[in-house]
Amino acid sequence: MTERMTGAQALVRALEHVGVDTVFGIPGGAILPAYDPLYDSTKVRHVLVRHEQGAGHAAEGYAQATGRVGVCMATSGPGATNLVTPIADAYMDSVPIVAITGQVASAAIGTDAFQEADISGITMPITKHNFLVTDPADIPRTIVEAFHIASTGRPGPVLVDIAKDALQSDTEFHWPPVMQLPGYRPVTRPHSKQIREAAKLMAEASRPVLYVGGGVHKARASEQLLALAELTGIPVVTTLMARGTFPDSHPLNLGMPGMHGTVAAVGALQKADLLIGLGVRFDDRVTGKLSSFAPHAKIVHADIDPAEISKNRHADVPIVGDCKEVIGDLITAVKAGGTGSYEEWTEQLSDYKRTYPLGYEEFADGSLAPQYVMERLSAIVGPDAYYVAGVGQHQMWASQFIGYENPGSFINSGGLGTMGFAVPAAMGAKMGRPDATVWAIDGDGCFQMTNQELATCAIEGVPVKIAVINNGNLGMVRQWQTLFYDERYSNTDLKTARRIPDFVKLAEAYGCVGLRCERPEDVDATIKKAMEINDVPVVVDFVVHQDAMVWPMVAAGTSNDDIKIARDMAPVWESED
Ligand SMILES: Cc1ncc(C[n+]2csc(CCOP(=O)(O)OP(=O)(O)O)c2C)c(N)n1
Ligand SMILES: [Mg+2]
């Protein structure tokens, strides 16, 4: 198929052909030529956001809820630099997005032209790949390549920066274009020798743990994981990025490991003699002080990105491959070679679970405990919703106190820890999954970074629900000040207790319904009321106690062995150690 058209028309046509249905963005000078044919597209819906950061996070939320590539668009200079945070966020959490930016005309590149920023240079270290396009003939091929790179292998963000004159000039449009990506061939099939080695170690181990990360859901391998866990009886820990990948209700699930992990999950890793790491990266928030992490364990490490393997911890058995294939092959190998027996181990871990369940402090003054809000959300809204968190204490409580049963149902910013993620990401998730209930769980600090996307939600008809966990503070930072800075609360009091801003009025100003809840006895009725409103977005201001803390905690840089279940309270491990 060959047709003559402008580069801008070729761009829109290519987006249609690769199956894009939603683009989040804001126009401006350099990208303006692309917005003209976009206006006529019946296949691509452009969602006008209020800040480009919102466009980027919305693309991420869309991608995470649908498994498809999310798309955002911005103009050159400040439009493009406003995308830097979500691009970095997508890079850290391996989220497939394509960011399309306009660039100044090719003759002006490098002259400090109006609204010029070297966005491909700026995003070089935070994109999986990026392109600067100056020839209109390259546009369709580049789009196909960008979508291919973003969605295959280890997913990630790809930037396509297009010079204004390339959008304006005429070109021949050919479809389908031929990709030119020599050397890009992600390995998905694991090596059979490594699989046999791993299965052998699993059979020989007496204290193995399946250490499951975000890569397992990205490979859509939850079913295989369940089969492997049940076949072998090996207990499972699910990292922040893997919550829901293995059902919380399953007896083999020990919960989340790491800085705010459960005693059972953290203890299991520390006492294990074998870790089977699947789609994980031995992140410092999981390992604590690396030299004392899982000191007795041999390591099997499977990941699609060879650069992750042995990056932080030496892998005795490295496996490069897609987790679905890896786990499938492990199942076959275990069936052939036999499984080990781990009753004593699983008994010990069940004992940790029973002795050290997650708990929290209730306040004598009758004020609201944030963890209680999570428990009630979990009970009333249930596991079929998507929960999208911001960053801070509320994020950890959302991970700890909501029961996740479905893969991908908890969406949050793990690697970068980006405040402001929740509202736009929830909007993107709801647009990708319009039939699902989507709850954002946000902090009063985070919410003030990106709540302008409430306008987008209200106008575009995206009825998300937002629980603002309003503790009046940058709570997570305040917690560190309580514990490590002698209760010197430097610049963490947001004074939202003074109702500046008043979140209910703010919601109303944006065309949303605003509700407030301040007492435990009103929580259920408030959540039920929010669940009944499905035509407009709802914001609930849950005013909670400012001194609630996230426990358990492994202080940054210390050993997982020194996990505390409350201030100055450590679990009692059995006498053998
Ligand atoms: C963009 C950005 N700036 C600063 C931080 C550092 N930080 C991490 S958590 C946090 C507090 C978040 O406050 P809030 O949204 O109210 O959540 P809470 O911890 O109170 O639940 C801050 C400032 C960050 N993660 N991201
Ligand atoms: Mg707060």
TrEMBL record:
It comes from the Bacteria. It is an enzyme of class 2 (transferase). InterPro entries: Acetolactate_synth_lsu, AHAS_TPP, DHS-like_NAD/FAD-binding_dom, THDP-binding, Thiamin_PyroP_enz_cen_dom, Thiamin_PyroP_enz_TPP-bd_dom, TPP-bd_CS, TPP_enz. Its cofactor is Mg(2+); thiamine diphosphate. Residues 390-542 form the Thiamine pyrophosphate enzyme TPP-binding domain. CDD domains: TPP_AHAS, TPP_PYR_POX_like. Residues 195-329 form the Thiamine pyrophosphate enzyme central domain. It catalyses: 2 pyruvate + H(+) = (2S)-2-acetolactate + CO2. Pathway: Amino-acid biosynthesis; L-isoleucine biosynthesis; L-isoleucine from 2-oxobutanoate: step 1/4; Amino-acid biosynthesis; L-valine biosynthesis; L-valine from pyruvate: step 1/4. Transmembrane segments: none annotated. Belongs to the TPP enzyme family. This is Acetolactate synthase.
